[in-house]
Q: What sequence folds into this?
């Protein structure tokens, strides 16, 4: 599982770099495109697991791994640092929670009403983009 996570994380980083401009920055449209890619491709290892396997994996993790605000802060601030026009005081915690909500919804898609599932994901992406970037 750990190596799958590393593989998917590296793949996501490589895709992110493909959205950067020649200055190494991410504009608002490409931030949205990257987040859309994440939600369509779902590089989350949970997508490979059954519900029982997911529960077993989560139960084996230390709570510090699941609730690691330092790691969340690092990841979100890295993303903010490459934005072409970041908000002055972006609400990175809310944006992070929206991103986690997308990840959770992708692994538990069957609990949502399917008629507007894609609209829900797109709405969350729009909110993340608006929280982080002008």
A:
């Amino acid at each position: 599982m750990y190596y799958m996570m590393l593989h998917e994380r590296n793949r996501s980083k490589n895709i992110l770099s493909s959205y950067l401009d020649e200055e190494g920055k991410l504009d608002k449209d490409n931030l949205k495109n990257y987040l859309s890619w994440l939600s369509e491709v779902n590089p989350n290892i949970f997508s490979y697991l059954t519900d029982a396997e997911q529960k077993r994996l989560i139960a084996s993790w230390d709570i510090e791994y699941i609730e690691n605000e330092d790691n969340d802060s690092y990841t979100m601030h890295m993303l903010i640092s490459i934005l072409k026009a970041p908000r002055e005081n972006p609400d990175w915690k809310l944006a992070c929670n929206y991103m986690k909500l997308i990840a959770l919804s992708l692994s538990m898609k069957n609990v949502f009403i399917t008629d507007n599932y894609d609209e829900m994901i797109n709405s969350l992406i729009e909110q993340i983009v608006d929280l982080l970037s002008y």
About this structure: The two ends are 37 Å apart (CA to CA). The mean pLDDT is 89. The chain has one domain: 2-132. Residues 2-132 form one domain.
